[in-house]
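ENTRY TYPE: paired fold submission
RECORD: A
CONTENT: sequence, then structure tokens
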Amino acid sequence: MTTSAGSAPEPPATDRAGEPAERLGMAGRRAVQAALDWALAVGVGVFAGLVAGLIAIPLAQWGWVPPKVILWAPAITFLAVTQACDIVIQIWVPVRRGGITPGMLVMGLRVQTLRGGQPKARAYLIRWVLLTVDGLLLGLVAVVSIVATKRQQRIGDLVARTLVVRADVSRREPGTAP
């Protein structure tokens, strides 16, 4: 593209506020963060399901429980523990750790209110409940919402009145891990 002699060149795409590439970058960071948090919950659930299976097999062989328990105990344990871990990761950990889940810690993100403060537990609960909506179509609803909204919020953030922003490393207390 050419410019006339007296006009300034157009700023690069990364310098313009609200650039789609920047929005997609945040959506990508949040997608990776969500995948990391979910992988942690599923990993703990798989481990618990394996332990339940290892306990159920001898109990069934000794005749203390019906053989169907070998199938159902690990499956139910996996689902219950994965759900419990997801609740802990999405609600309890951010309340206790300044709005940061394990995945957010890795990706350098944190949750804050629209005014910049620490959200209450109720806001995290709302965000967690609305993950079911945001997760529709393999997370496409959340990605479209993040890219389309002015403050890059998913539906859970809009309802809970929260934002996910880059974590400010300089605000950490001395001696704390990044």
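RECORD: B
CONTENT: sequence, then structure tokens
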Amino acid sequence: MPSQYQPHQRFTEADRDKIAGRLRDAFADGRLDQPEFSSRLDQLYAVQTYGELEPLVRDLPPVRTYQTPAMVQNTTPAPAPGEFPERQKQKQGKSLVALGGGFGGIVLLNVVIWFVIGIGNGGHWPNFWPVWLLIPWAFIVLGQLGKRR
């Protein structure tokens, strides 16, 4: 117990809860068995002064303090209010398919289908109908090229 308290002083409910926590920790660690834990807990709720409280925890190790989990210890601190951290710029590919997103894959698939149909017809190529997909895709790609990243 802290030295600022006198043995004859009464303690608070918060102090009683702290001691009960120490007893629970000792029981969980295997330092106390069930009968001894129950006995000390019963005594804890029967005593009223610091002098009577001290023998209940005299043979137990000091109170465990809170430890920050290891997962959180190595993180950078939060920025001060009003400050914003710099965003990491991601390098993105500048290929035509990457610029057009998923739509570029659809256009490419349609061009392949058109090509296979032309080969299947013995080299008689039909009109290039994927152009109707290429036109909006070209606008998407040109719009993406103009954006700053």
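NOTES ON RECORD B: The longest helix spans residues 102-120. The two ends are 61 Å apart (CA to CA).
STATUS: closed
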